[in-house]
Amino acid sequence: MDKISILHGDCLKLMNIIEPESVDLIVTDPPYNLSKNYGNNGDNLNHNDYIDFSRRWLAEAKRVLKPTGTIYVFMGVRYISYIYVMMEQELGLHFNSWITWTYTQGIGKTKGFSPRHDDILMFTKNNRFKYNLDPIRVPQKYYRSVNNMRGANPGNVWEFSHVHYCQANRQNHPTQKPEALFERMILASSDEDDIVLDPFCGSGTSLRVCQQLNRRGIGMEINEDYVAMTEARISQPFVGFDSIDERMERVPNDLNDEDIRREYINNHIRWFLKNHPDRIEKFLVAVNKKYSKKAAKPHFADDLHGKLTHTSRNHEQLPRQ
Ligand SMILES: C[S@@+](CC[C@H](N)C(=O)[O-])C[C@H]1O[C@@H](n2cnc3c(N)ncnc32)[C@H](O)[C@@H]1O
Closest Cα to residue 206, out of 75, 72, 312? Predict the structure, then answer.
């Protein structure tokens, strides 16, 4: 199997060819039935047809998921309660988390409250499932010897901006999601070389993340233009994911001891900026700004300066402790 495969067609048919209990993780962002233009009228079904469609693809998802597997499903408010009931009551999946993805921009309502979140349901197939907390921790606000400086659990409210039209990685797709959302789910719920399935892969966000995190990604997409878009996207050089949780860039307060600070900063880059080499320089500038009076010129700034031109996945270039 290729490390990354994109299959063109209807996922209801394509999932049939996947062996039962062979997929480690499903991360997917299906159409929300909000009349988005995906090049067909598939996002404009009547209520019963949409429920039936959801029931059918979710049943296939359960069939292909390993007993230790996890499924994350993006959904808008209109249908999330139906999807929740299907997953828990009809399919017998185990509820784990209701994640809220919140953003600052979106449509403005003149009557009612402007929507500023989508949600992601995380269910597992059983009670014994894979979960890696360390790779998704977020930096602490303060240096304290009693704090776990390896970082805190990111919580279930995730704040990321939409991929803006002027960003280099913006694709011509109406609902492209930020890569950092998929980065967190894939790091938490799979290991390197695991099989990750996205039956509705759109512009290829999930596959791009799988490629950079060394997972075996299988994407399915009904619109052939989006399949071509994904192929082009995954052939681009990697300079860092297109989005990041802003907490990953924060410099803890009270890091006053120079030796501790030096060790922490090197660790911070390895732990929190591993997949964001393009953010290291900004982080070091913030360190220097915050602590310049304490140490005129931290050595790590010079050490790192020449190492920031990543064009491919190359974690080895980051400084080791
Ligand atoms: C919400 S978008 C996914 C966006 C994606 N997460 C991204 O970041 O680009 C849903 C995608 O599912 C595709 N789709 C809709 N029905 C499908 C089906 N039956 N099988 C496969 N793909 C389908 C649509 O064409 C659309 O690109």
Answer: 72
